[in-house]
Prior knowledge:
The chain has 72 residues and is mainly β. It has a domain at 1-43. Helix content is 0%, strand content 19%. The protein is built from no helices and three strands. The chain has a three-stranded antiparallel sheet, with no helix packed on it. A hairpin with a 5-residue loop joins strand 1 (3-8) and strand 2. The chain is rod-shaped, with a radius of gyration of 29 Å. The protein starts with a strand and ends in a 33-residue tail after the last strand. The mean pLDDT is 80. Bound molecules: zinc ion. Zinc ion binds at residues 8, 10-11, 13, 30, 32, 34.
Amino acid sequence: MPRYEFRCRACGATFEVKRPMARAGEPASCPQGHADTVKLLSTVAVTGRGGGGSGAPSEPAAGGCCGGGCGC
Length: 72
Ligand SMILES: [Zn+2]
């Protein structure tokens, strides 16, 4: 479940709220009970780095018969 970070404008506290994405836009009240809060950036973990890396496998070159000195 994603977490959303809020900041209370009344007391300045920041707090996290876990809620389903469908309710992401709903206001949250501060742990102290203040209702005047603003939503900060969501702290949803971003996964999925592509995992690049040098990947091209070296193709076998010059195989078979005519690669060498067989004279065909
Ligand atoms: Zn507060």
